[in-house]
Amino acid sequence: MNAEVKALAKASSFTPPPLRTVKAANRLTRFYFNPQFQGLDHVDPLKPALYVCNHTLYGMLDGPLLYEKMYEEKGIVLRALGDHFHFKIPLWGKMLKRGGSVAGTRENCAQLMEQGEHILVYPGGGREVAKRRGEKHKLTWKTRTGFAHMAMKYQYPIIPVAALGADDALDIVVDAYDVMQNPLGRWLLKHDKNDILRGGDMIMPLCKGIGPTILPRPEKFYFSFGKPIDSSAFLGMENDKEMQWQLRYKTMQAIEAELSKLREVRKRDKDNSLIRRLLTQR
């Protein structure tokens, strides 16, 4: 059995972990980041959808909390399409697989859609995770339109999801630009025969959180689900590149609008303890 067939088999033969296990695993981060959610009324467990979300710095802090909330409140076990690099990280990769994540290929996405799964995708992929200075809350999707193609083909509604907070929990000290301007960095890129660094896109930043440490500041996390975007108007147009870009642009606008709403929610949120306020000061 080749690797592609094995991947498809795993995508279709998934048994969700018990909710209590998910909640136990998230207990510390849930307490630490105190996540807030809005717009869950736009989520219908009986209508499978493609949840398109912005990726935050490192891509590891807020995703599990989003997964837990959907599981607990809606009974939905999100099947996430992840960048291949996630599955190469010890422990983290195994945890993702146990939660139902699969490599973000069109074949895996098609398999999940044919099964009627609720699917989470981050079009920014690894590049949006490896943020650089000035890219806080920025959507960095390059030329990707694959999610739009799949939504059109399988007539999946798109639910825009915005995540705010994780990008504020850490400050970037050294980013990819710094590395690529360094002689050692240029040498590494030149000799990256397997394209692991993807031309610099996968050079992760060096960050600091509380004081000089790498411990993230306990910023409150905020999530917002926007109104579903109907893909029926694009029926039969999945191979039309212009239509893909139209749906992509519509989705980006919706996510950016939800991010703007969350910034206002955060400004008005006075429910912060003294300790949290002290630890989140820069």
UniProtKB/TrEMBL annotation:
- Please provide, in alphabetical order, the Gene Ontology terms of the cellular component aspect for this entry: membrane
Q: Which UniProt keywords apply?
A: Acyltransferase, Transferase
Asked if the Swiss-Prot or TrEMBL record annotates the protein with the keyword Chaperone, the reply is no
What sequence ranges are listed for the domain Phospholipid/glycerol acyltransferase?
A: 49-166
Q: Which GO terms describe its molecular function?
A: acyltransferase activity
- Report whether Nucleotide-binding shows up as a keyword of the record: no
**Pfam families referenced in this protein's UniProt entry, alphabetically:** Acyltransferase
List, alphabetically, the InterPro entries matched: Plipid/glycerol_acylTrfase (IPR002123)
PANTHER family, A to Z: MONOACYLGLYCEROL_DIACYLGLYCEROL O-ACYLTRANSFERASE, TRANSMEMBRANE PROTEIN 68
The identity of this protein, by name, is Acyltransferase
- Source organism of the structure: Ketobacter alkanivorans
The top of its lineage is: Bacteria, Pseudomonadati, Pseudomonadota, Gammaproteobacteria, Pseudomonadales
